[in-house]
Amino acid sequence: MLRISYTLVVFSFLSHTRIPLSFSLPASSSFLPLPLSYSPTPTHTPNIHTSLLFLPPPSPSLSQLMRDLGARELMFTSDGQYRISESLRMKPHRDVVHTLNYQNAHDNPLQRLKREAPHHPLMVMEFWTGWFDHWGEKHLERNISPEDFSLELRAILAEGASVNLYMFHGGTNFGFMNGGNWGEGEERGRTYRSTVSSYDYDAPLSEWGSVTKKYLELRNLLVETVPESLSLNPLPPLPLSVPTADYGEIKMTLYISLLSTLQYVPEPHTSGTPIPMEFLPLNKWSGQGFGYILYRTFVPSSASSLTIHGLKDYGLVMLDLKPIREVGYFDKVTISLPSPSSQGLPSRQLDILVENGGRVNFGHPLAVRKGISGSVVVDGVTQANWKIYSFEFKNSFIQNIDRGGVWLRTPAKEDSGPALFKGSFTIDGTPKDTFIDMQGWNKGVVFVNGANLGRYWMKGPPGSLYVPAPLLSQGINKNHVQHCSSAVPVECPSHIIKNMENSPIETTR
Is the CA virtual torsion 117, 118, 124, 125 positive or negative? Predict the structure, then answer.
């Protein structure tokens, strides 16, 4: 029997925890891909996505410009069900097809589209099968039940329309690739909402490929409605379940302070004022796109008040390496600085670590700079002389600190600021899909063999991260947890690897 050893590394942005980690596996599952759209239109079609910015639909000049530049494919808009008339009033190029997006139809939008654009083929370009989560909000706040999913889909097919399921298969925003949104209603444009790493979406196939009730409803509906001439009936039997495993508990035995790894990141950029990460002279002058950015300066020992303008998205303020305050997305915030622990020193080191929580991919504005885009004022005086460090958490960074960093034994309690934690576990036999349980940890990201699984945050709703079997290879595998420390030490949990049937879907708020 094959025995495989693995090491886990966790980066912690907020308060360190000290309990072991654990794995939680998905339940036995299976999937059967099915063709869901039988429209005769081309496979690859450019989308003039008018709903992305909530802006007016495209003008004739936009579609004509694309034609003039040589685009010959079918073009289409992708509009909300309440924007049909507005989109058609713009009168884009005659061969731009208008399609719809919705989850629950109101006032028969397909009939309205048919009346206003009788010569267009009917299609629901995005039929939302579920919804995604934001950190700190209710799980599946906007969703559709399997029964209503089947009814809405049946109504679409009854109109003779084509349909594209968004999403058919749930997925994962691995690494730092999750998006974000603005608050809705009166909050739109003011409240930043970061999307979680899991994009399970309550889709017909789950994040890890498991058949759901929606999948079975869809399968039954296709048996009833798809013409026999398409040779889909009878459908083949469901395949065997996706293999999963329970790998138990992982003790996070080693840690290293993030601020002691500065020799493994690019040379700091010196600036008179803070600048956002996109303006750093990195990556062939394209700037920093993801990860964390550290702003370092020195303030008078007598300093008592700190005001930060334009911090995005989450920050940790530290004085002399000690965390003093966690701060969220804001235009301006003022905090009090504690008195120095020892007298006589002329200055104290001020560090502000800022996380890019994910880029807004819907709504306005989109081009939001990450880090600190404004000034930092200390006791009424604008602070100058900054050193700015980039923590992109590339694979090379994880490898270099794993090999050359000075790792210490994880203490029972720690209040030393952001840190990385490392532990190991062993697998007997062929690796299988699993989930890693992050309950008890505060905020950060997890790496397995250098692969960034995504973010965790005690706010929930997800309490675990998906670990696909291909990330677990033969030999020694390394797992790191990045943890971002606050000023309040808590007990450090272990990671538990267990079957997804027992895995948390929501954490306690």
Answer: negative
What is the end-to-end Cα distance of the chain in Å, rounded? 43
The answer to whether 95 and 118 have CB atoms below 8 angstroms apart is: no
Instruction: Kindly state the tokens that stand for 407.
Output: 């790792």
pLDDT of 429-454, one tens digit each?
A: 889 999 999 998 999 999 998 899 99
Does the CA dihedral 438-440-444-447 come out positive or negative?
negative
CA–centroid distance for 93 within its chain: 36
pLDDT greater than 70 at residue 262? yes
- pLDDT tens digits, 459-471: 999 999 999 999 9
Specify the 3-state DSSP secondary structure of 205.
Answer: strand
- Residue 331: the pLDDT is 78
How far, in Å, are 31, 177, 486 from residue 505 at the CA level? 21, 21, 25
Beta strands in 273-401 (DSSP E): 292-300, 305-312, 314-319, 322-327, 330-336, 347-355, 359-360, 371-372, 376-378, 381-382, 386-391
Predicted local distance difference test score (pLDDT) of residue 474 = 63
Assign residue 399 a region: left if phi > 0, alpha if psi is -120 to 50, beta otherwise? alpha
